[in-house]
C-alpha cells in the first residue's frame, strides 16, 4: 500500500488522559457501528460510504470522455456551483496544481483555465469574470443537486446567454455539462429540453459528500489531475477506517478527541495549514463540519487559518485569547517544490544563518515552534500528516474527514447528513425578492 496519512493526537494528552480516552471507546464505537450498519439518522444519505469502491464505472468513463472533449475544444471551463457543488473541486484543483494554474502560459499548462462562479451574489465578480473570459473558447459545467440554487442559477443564466451568443444555440448546448439530480429540479428539466450532457448526483449523496461523484470528478479531470488515484486513496482510507480498532483508527480517534474536548467546553476547532494551496481544503472542511454538526444549539464552530500568514493576524488570539479553541494542523510532510535561500556576501538582512537551507525547512520550524507555543498557551492540538501533495493523499484526506464526521455527528446525537438551518435565510430572501409561490 502507498504511504498513508497519519493522525497524531499527542498534542491533546494534557487535556484528555489515557483513561478518559479509553472510557470514551464504547461511545465512539457505538457511533461507528450506527454509521456502518446504516441505522442512524440521515441513513438515506450514506451513498458516499461505498462510492470509492462502487462508483459507477460507466459514469466515470463518460466523465473522462467529457473532460477530453472540454480539453480539446475549450481554453476555459467555467464551473458554476456553490457549497458542496463547488468546494470539493476547487479544493482538489488548488491542492494538486500550480499555485498560478490559470496564469501559466499555454506551454506550461495544456489543460483549460478553470474559473469558478455562481458561488456568491457579487455582480463585480461576475462582470470581472466576463472581462477575463473575453472571446476565448469556453464550456460550462453547471453543478447543482437541487437544480434550484439561486446563486448558481443566476450565474448560469448569464453565461449561458454569452455561450449562445458566441456559438449559436445548437453548438452552445454541446458545451454545457449539467451535473444534477437524476430527475428532479429546474436544471434537470432545462438540460433535457436543451440537450445538455448530464451527469448524475446520486440521491443518497449530499453536496458536502459529493466530490468523488461527477460534481468534483469532472472539473478535476478537466484540470488534468488523476481521478483514479483520488478514488484509490479514498478507497484505501475507507478500508482502514472501517476495519481498524479504536486505538488505531484515525477517523474514530479524531471524532472521539473533538467530542471529548467539546464536552470540556471547547467551542471552536481551528483547522490550520502551512501550505497556501490547502486553503480550499479548509473551506471544504468548514462546510462539511459546519453543516453536519452545527445543530441543536451545539457543535464545534469550524474555523480555519492559513499559516504562517495568519500568525501575523490571528496568532495573537490563538496564543492568548479566550481558551475556547482546539487546533487541527494539516502538515504536508514533503513539499512538492523546493526553493533554496541564497547566501549573500554581505549579511545585511542577517539571514545568512539560513543560507542554502530550503524555505520548507523554515516552514517546518515555524510549524513546530507554533505547535509548541499553542500547546503551552492552552490549545489542544491534533495533527494530520500528509505524506505528499498528490491525488492519492487527497483522496485519503477526503474520506478520513467524511468518516470522522459521520462518527462525530452520531456521538453528538445529531443527524450529520442534513442542513435544515440553511433554508431560513432563503425563505426571507425569496420573500424580499418576491419569488412567486408554487
Ligand atoms: O447543489 P445545490 O443544490 O445547488 O446546493 C448547493 C449548496 O447549497 C445549499 O444551500 C446547502 O446548504 C449546501 O449543502 C449545498 O451544497
From TrEMBL:
Protein name, as recorded: Glucose-6-phosphate isomerase
First-level EC class: isomerase
Functional description taken from the UniProt entry: Catalyzes the reversible isomerization of glucose-6-phosphate to fructose-6-phosphate.
EC numbers: 5.3.1.9
Annotated Pfam families: PGI
Protein keywords: Cytoplasm, Gluconeogenesis, Glycolysis, Isomerase
Record Gene3D superfamilies: Glucose-6-phosphate isomerase like protein, domain 1
Pathway in which the depicted protein is active: Carbohydrate biosynthesis; gluconeogenesis; Carbohydrate degradation; glycolysis; D-glyceraldehyde 3-phosphate and glycerone phosphate from D-glucose: step 2/4
Subcellular location: Cytoplasm
Catalytic activity: alpha-D-glucose 6-phosphate = beta-D-fructose 6-phosphate
Domain of life per record: Bacteria
GO MF: glucose-6-phosphate isomerase activity
Protein family membership: Belongs to the GPI family.
HAMAP family: G6P_isomerase (MF_00473)
Classification via InterPro entries: G6P_Isomerase (IPR001672), Phosphoglucose_isomerase_CS (IPR018189), SIS_dom_sf (IPR046348), SIS_PGI_1 (IPR035476), SIS_PGI_2 (IPR035482)
Active-site residue numbers: 291, 426
